[in-house]
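Our consortium's second objective concerns turning raw sequence data into structural hypotheses that experimental partners can test. To show how far this objective has progressed, the report includes one record in full. It was chosen at random from the queue rather than selected for favorable results. The single chain below, 253 residues long, was entered without modification.
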Amino acid sequence: MTDKKIAIVTGAATGIGEATAERLAAEGARVVVNDVNPAGAEVAQRIGGLFIQADLSQRADCRTIVEHTLDEFGTVHILVNNAGIQHVAPIDEFPEDAWDKLLAVMLTAPFLLTRYVWPHMKTQGWGRVINIASISSLRAEPNKSAYNTAKTGLLGLTRTLAIEGGPLGITAHAVCPGLVHTGLIDKQIPDIARTQGIPEDKVMDYFLENSPIKRAIQPREIAALVAFLCSDEAAMMTGAPVLIDQGLSAVHP
């Protein structure tokens, strides 16, 4: 599986990133835990990894993450672009600064990090780029213009990486979850309630209204999928959205 591989996981202080860092470490990888949140240090300590505090909205910080990893381990085998933020507002009220930051963190940073690790994956003839995208990569939601745009762009980036990486032994995946129970979702509840005109205690029902499976995905379930995609068993998979969406895409393909 991922034994002795070097992995970078962004946004790994909590949620999907934390669960993914834990899973990859449990399977033998040396994991670099990145987050702007200093709580990532505790995650790294717990799994025997390396914590690099960095702000992915800053290009220099993206480069620092990779350079520090190379200084410590000499190469990178796995890159999990997980870090994400959210802002909910109608298009005519959407703050321009929020637009810039969401795209910087969720689209530009994955491009930059991939660009910086790519030569090392190319040299060793093996690499995995896992982009944590979203069902929003395939179908938009109202009042999330920047998030929808970033996640759709991430799928386009993934397809490009698959085409360029295939002959080099590098695969790329866009993991597209539906509703995952994380702090990012919890923080959206007041905004969703306000924009949709529903009580806060009904927001989760609103999220899952059209999903055949009526529960939120747990971060560990996303982590298990990421671990599989990093394995040699998944070597013939690349370039496509990998759906884990409570069956929502079956209802609304």
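The partners drew two points from this record. The longest strand covers residues 170-177. The domain at 6-179+217-247 is CATH 3.40.50.720 (Rossmann fold). Both points have been shared with the crystallography group to help prioritize constructs.
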